[in-house]
Write a structure and sequence with these properties.
The chain is built from nine helices and twelve strands. It is of the alpha+beta class and 299 residues long. Strand 7 and strand 8 form a beta hairpin.
Length: 299
């Protein structure tokens, strides 16, 4: 089991955004911190290349050898039973097709609807399932039955699939957490997030409309920042880790979507929830009640 001191080296698996606490000074436990960092990154679903880049950016000293971080990640993967990994061997997502993106039809995005977070979640997740929800980006989430979560209007982040219970194992199976990957049930929805710099929400809307030609678009959430999140259904007959769904995600990435939401336990914005700091409402700008009722009952 991972000891409590190592657990304290991070915000934790339950942190809505994977991030490190400060790496200790040279000579004060950097090597131990490296192993903890490697476990957390791989547990969170980062590729070896992404993990190596993130870890190196947080280190307080140069690597003792040019492959210190790489070797630490390989050892963490071995202990997790993940087999041999190679830096750069993570899933290859397509490059953005800037020409295709520029050719997308542009239409003004819809205005906000009056749908509240409570109404949205109850429609998207009928039947009182376990849901993993975080009140803010700095608070730990809880996986609780829908009827036991009473502050949806003020919640910020959630896993867009039902959970199996209060806690489940992380990828390494060394401990359990509310957001552990083994606590996530079958995908119910695939969420496509678009975020461009400089901000261009009309382009985000155009990308989500393009993806709606591939499978039905159920709702769109304005993050309160630069991004829009589009919710699309996943049929229970689909392979929720590959097949047509993977092809859909690859097309979304090609057209400018963020590949992070492919991870089953990745957080997305609560539709109608509250973005903090600033108390900005995460408005629902598109809502197709008929489609939602059809898919929520089926999936």
């Amino acid at each position: 089991m991972t000891d409590s001191k190592q657990m304290d080296d991070f915000q934790g698996d339950d942190a809505p955004v994977l991030s490190f606490k400060r790496c200790p000074a040279e000579g004060s436990g950097v090597h131990k911190w490296l192993m903890g960092a490697a476990f957390r990154c791989l547990d969170a679903g980062l590729s070896a290349e992404q993990a190596a880049h993130l870890i190196r950016s947080k280190m307080t000293r140069p690597e003792n050898a040019c492959d210190e971080v790489s070797n630490t990640l390989k050892e963490a993967a071995r202990r997790m039973g993940a087999g041999e990994i190679l830096i750069g061997s993570g899933m290859k997502w397509p490059e953005r097709d800037e020409k295709a993106m520029a050719a997308l039809p542009r239409e003004p995005r819809p205005i906000a609807t009056p749908i509240t977070a409570t109404q949205a979640i109850d429609a998207l997740f009928p039947g009182n399932p376990f849901l993993c929800i975080a009140a803010s980006s700095t608070s730990k989430p809880f996986s609780v039955l829908r009827c036991d979560y009473e502050a949806l209007e003020n919640a910020q982040l959630m896993v867009p699939s039902p959970m199996l219970g209060p806690k489940g194992y992380v990828k390494s199976k060394e401990y359990k957490s509310a957001r552990g990957i083994h606590n996530v049930g079958r995908r119910k929805y695939i969420v496509i997030e678009c975020d461009f710099s400089p901000a261009d929400k009309d382009l985000c809307w155009a990308v989500l409309q393009h993806m709606a030609t591939k499978r039905p678009l159920l709702c769109v959430v304005d993050s309160g920042g630069k991004s829009l999140h589009g919710w699309y259904p996943v049929d229970p007959a689909e392979d929720d880790d590959g097949g047509n769904l993977l092809g859909f995600m690859q097309e979304a990435v090609r057209m400018g979507g963020d590949d992070a939401t492919w991870r089953k336990n990745q957080y997305v914005r609560v539709p109608g929830g509250l973005r903090m700091p600033g108390a900005v409402r995460q408005e629902i700008i598109y809502w197709n009640q008929e489609r939602i009722e059809k898919w929520a009952a089926k999936i």
